[in-house]
Every structure is written in C-alpha cells, then in structure tokens.
Sequence to fold (416 residues):
Amino acid sequence: MAERGRPRGFDRQVALRRAMEVFWEHGYEGASLSELTAAMGINAPSLYAAFSCKEALFREAVTLYEQQEGVLVAPAPTAREAVAGLLRSGAIAYTEPDKPAGCMIVLAATTYTPKTEGIRDHLRERRRAAKAAVRQRLEQGVADGDLAPGLDTGALADYLSTVLSGMSVQARDGVGRDGLLAVADAAMAGWDRLTSGEAGRSEPLASR
Amino acid sequence: MAERGRPRGFDRQVALRRAMEVFWEHGYEGASLSELTAAMGINAPSLYAAFSCKEALFREAVTLYEQQEGVLVAPAPTAREAVAGLLRSGAIAYTEPDKPAGCMIVLAATTYTPKTEGIRDHLRERRRAAKAAVRQRLEQGVADGDLAPGLDTGALADYLSTVLSGMSVQARDGVGRDGLLAVADAAMAGWDRLTSGEAGRSEPLASR
DNA sequence: CCATTTCTGTAGTGATAACTCCAAAAGTCT
DNA sequence: AGACTTTTGGAGTTATCACTACAGAAATGG
Fold:
C-alpha cells in the first residue's frame, strides 16, 4: 500500500520551487546543474531520479512559475479595467523584492542554440497563450458591449503584450515598481483612441 | 612604412560583421567559438590574434551593431514626429528579412551567469544610453515649446523604451512588420494625453 | 531475519567550452 | 639573399557541461 523502498529524503515540491527560482534568475542555459543541485539541496542522481533531465525539470519549473507567479487577467466589469489591472499587476509582479526581476517566461531563453530549440519553442508557446488570453478578454469586452464591434483585438493584444514583455526588460535594467506602474498608466493613456473609432488618421486598430 | 610580417589573410571588418550576426541571433553565451570561427571563415588562433578574446569580440560586435543596425532618433521638427519615427523605424529594423529578428542589445544577454556579468552590464549600459537619447529628444521638445514644461521626460522615456524593448520580444515570437508597425501606432495613441496636462486622473507624467 | 525496492553520495563518463603551443608560411627591411 | 616579424593551421590543454554506474543506506513485505 505505502510506497516501497527507501523514501525520498527531500520535498520534491520545495526542490522544484528552488530550481524555478534559479531558472528565473539565470535562464535555462545559464542555470548549471551544479547550481541547480546546490540550490535544491540534493545531488545530481536525486535530481535525475525525480525530474528525468534538465529540460523536463525546466518545463515543470515553468508550470510552477505560471501557477505561483504568473500574471493573469483578473475578473473585472469591463475590458478596460481588466487590462489596466493586468498591466499594473505586471508592474508589481516584475518588481517583487527578494524575487528575480521581470518575467521568467519572457527572459529565460531569448536566444536559441541548436540544442535548446525545444525550450525556446515551449516558452514561445506559453507567451502565445498569454497573448491569446488577453485577446480573449478583449473579445469578451466586445461581446459585453463595452468595446466597439469590429475592433482588431489581435492588434490590441499585440500592443499590450509588447508593453508587458518590455516591462520585463525594464525591470531587469533596474526600473523600479513606481517606474513600471507609471509605464502601465502611460500604456493606458491611448485606450479610448485605441478602442473607439476616433483614431489619429482613420481607425488604426479597426482593421489590419 | 607598410605592415611588417605576414599579412592577415582575412578582412577584419568582414569577419567582425559575421561574428556580429552570430551574436545577434544566438546571444553571447549561445554563440560558441566553433560557430564563430566557422562563420568568420578563420581558425581560433586568428580570431584571438585579431580580437583578443570572446568578450572583446562581442564588445566590438556591439559597437558595429550600433553603427550599422542601431535604431536612432532621427531629426524631426517636433518631438512627436521624432518619437513616432523612432517607434516605426524600430518596427522596421526588428523585422528585416534575412536578419535576426529583434534588437541585439536587448536580446543578446537577458540572463546573467557569474562569468558574464561584464557582458550584461555592458549591454545594460547601452540600453541606458539609448533611453537617455530618447529623453534628450523629449527635453529638446520641451525647450522648443512643442512639449509642455514640467513634463516628466524620464517617465515618458521609460514608457517608450518599454515599447521598443517589447517589440524585440514580439519580433522574436514571430510578429511581422505590419504587426509591429501597428504596435508602434498604438503606442502613439496616447501621446496627446501623455504630453499635455489633461490626463486621466490628474497629470500622470507631470511628476513621479 | 532476509529479500526486495528505492533513494543517496561518490566518483567518474564523454562531449564541448574557451583558449593556446608551436612549427611552417608569407610577408617586409636591410 | 637572409634576418626579422607576424599570421596561420593542426593539435592539444584545462575546465566545465549534462548525465550516469555503482555500491551502500533506508525503507517495506514476508
């Protein structure tokens, strides 16, 4: 009934959390096995027995990151409030004291080497999913009637994702929480123009 | 008068350009010596004789990148036109066919390992300089009278830098030129609100 | 108690990283 | 031509990478 054999001498979830923090700060390739095992408090064979290989460990770390640290679109009455909250919660999440600055999904593998293509693709897919969630919320706004029908939600989601991923770079460069919150507010300054039809030239986001 | 000894068998500038392209695509750590020498068409001893070490080669590559591929604030009658042009030229530069997507300065070393701190700091400094140039142009606009006095040029420069660095990430993720140009336009939608005093709550960028 | 199962630490695997030794090659200077 | 200077290619050096073989430790089942 109970598990047979010698029981594991460490808490798998705690070790995974430590590994995630190392990946978050140093990226996939920048996190060496020796640094990972040191942070996790275990030796290499225990790591491989519990997580198979470095890539599998990283994928689990990404999942844990999304669960524990991920910036999500929170429920809000209107799309505008939801998006403003998303940007502001990003500004806060990317500048948590005692945590690495910026978003792990954005920063952990910006460049690809032949043997890390799988990692890059996986993170790219997660970013794509995050962007899709933003777009989803915008389409909800259209359905609810607080956004104009015919709005190019894809283009607006591109813009908002651009600001969020840029905030990760700025956070790594030392821009603090107040600075990023100001960026979030600045990014919202064009909201009315972006979502109504009264744009600069014609209707920039009405069709692409 | 002429150089003594056996003449170099390759064009240093051409080899540097090749190295820059490799660093641009794969980042500092992702570019291995063997890949660099293969792309440059030379053997390791020639590389070290001409460029000292990998880090020095990278620094020269960064300088060349800024000279040949850098996105600059072009002269324009008003700050608004200068900034709009900057964002649009970024969108175009980051999506050049047959060139790596995104900005090398932003993407080549987003994560740091103990032995690449110097690289990270160097790139961070280049980004800081780029942001300072944007801010400089904004202050010129204040001096010229086309931007309100008391405008928080630092905060606005933070916002614009955020958009530009975010565009590099989006370009790597496959957003094309049209998509990034739409992002550039979207980022400008709030310009009037950001630069005049008629902001959402009070005057978001008037003081931080 | 003994067999079985699983985990842990030591120590090492082959591969690749950045970098260099050295003799031959290819020029200039006198 | 011969001394001198610098570059070049092949081979090798040391360090670190991700990963693992193996034997002993620590649990359960009979």
Residues 117-144 of chain A form the longest helix (28 residues).
